[in-house]
Amino acid sequence: MNQPAYLHDRWDDQVAFEQEMMETGKERMRDRIKKARERQNLGGLRPHRSLLHEWVLPVSEALQKWLNTPRRGPVSIALGPLRQLNPDTAAMVALKAVLRMLGMERRNILSIAIEIGTNCEHEARMEHWKASDPKDWQDLQARFQARKSTSIHQRRATIAIFNKSKHDELGWLDWTTSERERVGLTMLDLVIETTQRFHIVPDPAWEPYRIAGGAWAKRPAVLMEDNELAEWIANAMDDELLHSPAYAPTLIPPLDWEGPRGGGYHTPFVKSPVLIRFKANHEEQRQIALEEFEALDMPEVYAAVNYVQRTPWAINTRVLEVAETIWDKDLALAGIIRQEKVDPPERPEGAAKGTDEYREWAKVASDIHADNAKRVSQFLAQRRTLTLARRLADEPEFFFPHHLDFRGRMYSIVSDLSPQGRDLDRGLLTFAKGKPIEEDDEQWLAIHLANVHGVDKADFGERIQWVKDREARWRQIAADPLDNRLWAEEEDPWQCLAAIFEWVRYLDEGPGMVSSLPIRVDGTCNGIQHLSAMVRDEEGGRAVNLVPGNRPRDIYMDVGNIVQQALDDQPLNPYVRMWGRLFGDKVPREVAKRPVMILPYGGTRSAYYRYTLAWLKKHDKDAAVIPRDQRKDALNLLVDLLLKAVKAVVVRAVEVMHWIQDNCAIASRSGKALAWWTPAGFYVRHFYATQEAYRIDTKLDGQRLNLQAYRETKELDRSKQSSGVAPNFVHSMDASALMTCANMLRDAGVECFTCIHDAYGTVAADMWTLERCLREAFIYTHEQPVLAQFLEACQYVSNGEGAGEWKPVPPMGTLDLSQIRQSDYFFA
After folding, report:
1. Between 113 and which of 185, 456, 681, 795 could a Cys-Cys bridge form, CB atoms 3.0 to 4.6 Å apart?
2. Is pLDDT above 60 for 481?
3. Which of 157-171, 179-193, 448-462, 613-627 comes out lowest in average pLDDT?
């Protein structure tokens, strides 16, 4: 049994860390504003701090003036709620939301307003509690700080009393949706009016589409900064505020989950999310879902999540030093974003709206704005990642609290730096505990190094030899990564660099070297692996390495070869000739990869078209091969061939998906949520609600706006329910296999484990154990009658309706699941 968290020698550090996340930043900022103004030294602060310092008091004063202004006529809905807040707090909340918007591609007015309103309500609750019962508040804080003679369960019980009992005891009334929206819109208008740095424009990146009834949807309004403020975006990010994530890793093992609430973070300073992010935004449905999960017992699920989040991590400081050097020198290497922006052209004189000249200018300006927004978003994400990594660089270990989505898939709560994050994140992270590498283990270091370089379709022997043949290259890179930059040209450069550092260290130290590098293996198109196993489809299973083979099968190339044959059969087609100029004599693997990957997850023709278009834009940027006015027809030809090829390779997988959808459609007539249990013991609650449109008339930035928004109802959307069920069922199976594998690894004594749905990893010395456990977990998952159980779940929710319409479980094929134990390339 784990000791109570408060006995951990770093408990005080953890409490302070969480308190800082939630509370201290706001109070410290207010104090710094006063001191900076007294010293008249705003210019000496970081640019981002200067923005906040300059604006928070004027916005707070503007709010006080607004609150105290006598009114005639109807009273604003926002008036009452805003009077519950300290004006400084409301100003800080609004400004943080607006400044955070600067790093986003989408700046929808209503979305920003709702964020402001929601966060304002949370702050109002906190202030109401402190004002209504200050002794209780102070006692709670004292108990958390002192923690003497009190158990972790007592503290959790106190938090539960606050969340559940204080609400009614203190007479708190929840804000309505309209109140949150109006509070947000009011604060947003005050920010715009006070700062004079923002304006509202029609969304330049919006693409027209039709809504129900055939009418065109209205172009939404977005918030844009002026050119002068835009120059601040790259530098106006404060390390302590905007770059401190809402959720950070913990310095001690996260609080274990024992139910749907109360795990992850240790104190009430951080709003820990519930364990399961189920699909129920409507209050009534949300309450039903919470009550269902609180009544359930899922011990194996909790055990798996707790095991994963107890994996100790550390920063790979060698990788961090290289990343920081590239960042500081603005070298734009290895995916690091340059800090510059492109200025849009000035509007030509005399270019009136509606003219061709205006439209041409607007299109160019819109594209530049969109590119800049994307660049800024990526820039800010990278800066947050590097800032957090530097902050954690001296920590001997830290941990990532995890939670689940409604299908059981596991996610790190921390997003700015995560083992599930981008390549930079994964390169920066290493396990805090390593194990000595013996001679049998070294191959996993080599295989991993080959895999991250894209040499992952050769057999293991070829991969190992590929690595050994390039010893001089690895040594040169490890000695000076900035002078030898081949690693930076790879698709996953930071994982490459981390693997190179580790391999060269092994070359120098030999067997016995303690390695903490995460070694990951991926399933071969894991969704199709699961679908094939469900019906024992030997042909589909062979295509995705469920059957042993001397070399890894590549289903993407199987599809590509079928498409190439179809193209070869039409030599006179002009579009075939165009594709031939781009492809050569073989359809690239990359063209087929996305369509095959998304099939088990509800891939549609439009998705195929979108991914193929993205490939075309990348490889024919100037439309030199396929002219823009002919792209649509050329793409339609190729997309049709891809669809046929994918369905030809995985016939049974498509059959299973249709079977799942058909039975769910019958069950959906009941109007109730569909629920099923996974083999690992997770309860999947499948509910897609209908949405209703409503309008908000408001005045913002001197303009009368009519905003259209949508909200969920408590009613089931039968169409979405059936269209989403097949991919969600597959996801629930991969989540179940992962949980089962995690618990097997825990029982086997493996201390370090990382997972990204269908990619598992551990240290090289434990890879043999992982290889065994992931196979046994998959076999166990599909030895259960998962399709029969799904059918029973559909019939149960239908209350006897649909008799005679139910589709029987598809016939089983000849695939022997036990063969997976001998399939070297099942996960490779």
Report:
1. 185
2. yes
3. 157-171
Cα separation, 522 vs 214, whole angstroms: 44
Residues 780 and 820: their CA atoms lie apart, in Å, by: 11
CB atoms within 10 A of CB 129: 19
Q: How confident is the model at residue 343 (pLDDT cuts 50, 70, 90)?
A: confident
Q: 498-527 burial, b if ≥16 CB within 10 A, otherwise e?
A: bbbbbbbbbbeeeeebebbbbbbbbbbbbb
What angle (nearest 5°) sits at the alpha carbon of residue 434, between those of residues 432 and 435? 165
Q: Are 315 and 430 in contact (CB under 8 A)?
A: yes
* Predicted TM-score (pTM) of this structure: 0.75
For residues 234-248, one letter each, b for 16 or more C-beta atoms within 10 angstroms of the residue's C-beta and e for the rest, the string is bebbbbbbbbbbebb
Rounded to whole angstroms, the Cα distance separating 705 from 680 reads: 50
Q: What is the mean pLDDT of the chain?
A: 85
CA distance 558 to 745: 34
The answer to whether the beta carbons of residues 492 and 452 sit under 8 Å apart is: yes
| pLDDT value for 240 | 40
Quick: pLDDT tens for 581-598.
999 889 999 899 888 888
DSSP label at residue 487: G
pLDDT of residue 134 exceeding 70, the answer is yes
Q: Which amino acid is at 828?
A: A
User: By C-alpha distance, which of 28, 105, 92, 23 is closest to 56?
Assistant: 92
Q: Say which residue the tokens 């604060």 belong to.
A: 187
Tokens of 57: 């008091």
Copy the structure tokens of residue 420: 């599930």
- The model's pLDDT over 306-321, given as tens digits with 9 standing for 90+, comes to 999 999 999 999 999 9
Q: Cα 428 to chain center, whole Å?
A: 18
Bridging pattern class, strands 402-405 and 276-277: parallel
Beta-bridged to residue 201, according to DSSP, are 222
What residues form DSSP beta bridges with 709? 694
- SS3 state of residue 551: coil
Taking the C-alpha atoms of residue 164 and residue 198, their distance in angstroms, rounded to an integer, is: 40
- What phi and psi values does residue 521 have, to the nearest 5 degrees? -130, 145
Distances (CA, A) of 621 to 31, 333, 617: 52, 21, 5
Nearest alpha carbon to residue 582 among 644, 626, 612, 636:
626
Supply 490's token pair: 């790879």
344 backbone dihedrals φ, ψ, rounded to 5°: -70, 155
Of these ranges, 145-149, 334-338, 678-682, 715-719, the one predicted with the greatest mean pLDDT is 678-682
Spell out the residues 6+ positions from residue 585 whose beta carbon is closer than 8 angstroms to its own.
564
Q: Determine how many CB atoms are found less than 10 A away from the CB of residue 296.
A: 15
